[in-house]
Design brief:
The protein is an alpha+beta fold. It has twelve helices and 14 strands. The strands form four sheets. A six-stranded mixed β-sheet has the order 3-4-5-6-9-12, with helices on both faces. The chain has a three-stranded mixed β-sheet with strand order 1-2-14, with no helix packed on it. It has a three-stranded antiparallel β-sheet with strand order 11-10-13, with no helix packed on it. The termini are far apart.
Length: 368
């Protein structure tokens, strides 16, 4: 795994096969917490916790985010794109960039959060029933009922988003009664997201406490012990931080084989040289790309660029698309303008005849 840093943001790349998180967690429960797999001693249909750890003090229900929610997000995006105020971008764009342009941004954001959170809600709902059954089957005075939620390598399950959704679920009430009273806490783990601390790559382990924790300090101590042992078992140091101030970014997984366009996008992610551009400078670069592309692909253009110049325009367009999406600049803000293309031709030191061709709307005005 490689760390790629710059003055604007932190990026981490990785290559090769990705080890699943869930099997490691199962081994950790047994090896580091003295856990007993209840699947081995109870009927498979029994709706109880997965592991009994620390001599029964800790009941663990392991839930895995196996399926990618990206398709649900894509379906919602396709539905919302029918709105009149929906912005159109070159390629894909972050949700934050889209929200800058819609009238009811908060409502739209809630719909996206709902799509992302469906799997989380389903897991919490099932785990609550299983932990309730566990408490009946294995009664004791003191017990921490914990859900461990593992993200199996999906970008969409951002730690901050999952923590927000989970906290809302744990504190949710109906007619004054908690909806999920049998869950004391949820610990979320992801190795698709990371940050750097003291020049080391750090993965998130997020503890989301339920209402019962406030009246039982010892439960917080057990959660702390769980996290310390997880770090120790993995041979790493445990850092404490707040998600409000600590940002975890998705790790870029670099495939063994890439399309040419994907390679260009990776180039820009590694060196986002246009981040410091003003809006006008970015528009000028866009105009220069359209200038070269028009000369390349229009049949009656007065000049045919070289192969290198064509490749430059295509790769640069991939870079501009990423920068426009990151800034939330839709296609409609960079409208076609003959005078701008003529100015771009001058900056590119093209001949006077080429400049005139753009000034006359690529020869259309002269023909008319």
């Amino acid at each position: 795994m490689d760390e790629m840093t710059d003055n604007v943001s932190m990026r981490i790349e990785r290559k090769g096969p990705v080890a699943r998180l869930t099997p490691r967690l199962k081994r950790f429960f047994v090896e580091a917490l003295g856990g007993e797999s209840l699947d081995d001693i109870q009927h498979s249909e029994a709706r109880k916790a997965d592991f009994r750890c620390l001599r029964g003090l800790l009941a663990v229900e392991l839930k895995t985010l196996e399926k990618d929610a990206s398709q649900r997000i894509d379906n919602l995006t396709a539905e919302l794109s029918e709105r009149e105020d929906w912005p159109v971008f070159y390629g894909s764009a972050p949700v934050e960039s889209i929200l800058k342009h819609v009238q009811d941004a908060d409502a739209v954001k809630r719909r996206f959060m709902d799509r992302i959170g469906r799997a989380v809600k389903d897991h919490v709902s099932k785990a609550d029933k299983q932990l309730a059954a566990h408490a009946v089957a294995f009664p004791r005075k003191n017990m921490l009922r914990l859900v461990v939620l593992a993200n199996e390598d999906h970008e969409v399950y951002d730690p901050e988003v999952v923590a927000y959704l989970t906290q809302r679920l744990l504190l949710r009430r109906h007619n004054g009664v908690l909806l999920y009273p049998h869950i004391d806490a949820v610990i979320f783990l992801s190795e698709r997201h990371a940050t750097t601390l003291d020049q080391q790559i750090a993965f998130p382990i997020v503890s989301i406490e339920g209402h019962s924790i406030t009246s039982a300090v010892w439960k917080s101590e057990v959660l702390d012990m769980f996290m310390r042992r997880w770090a120790s078992w993995n041979g790493v140091q445990l850092y404490h931080s707040d998600l409000k101030t600590q940002t975890f970014r998705s790790i870029d997984h670099i495939p063994e084989h890439m399309k040419r366009s994907e390679h260009w996008q990776l180039q820009y992610k590694r060196e986002p040289y246009m981040v410091g551009f003003t809006a006008e400078q970015l528009r000028e670069r866009f105009d220069e790309i359209i200038c070269v592309s028009s000369l390349s692909f229009l049949k009656d253009s007065p000049l045919k660029p070289s192969k290198n110049e064509i490749n430059w325009s295509m790769s640069s367009m991939s870079h501009v698309m990423l920068e426009m999406a990151a800034r939330g600049i839709p296609v409609t803000e960079f409208k076609y303008a003959p005078e701008r293309l003529a100015a771009a031709a001058k900056r590119l030191h093209l001949t006077a005849s080429v400049v005139v061709w753009f000034e006359t709307d690529m020869g259309r005005a002269a023909r008319e």
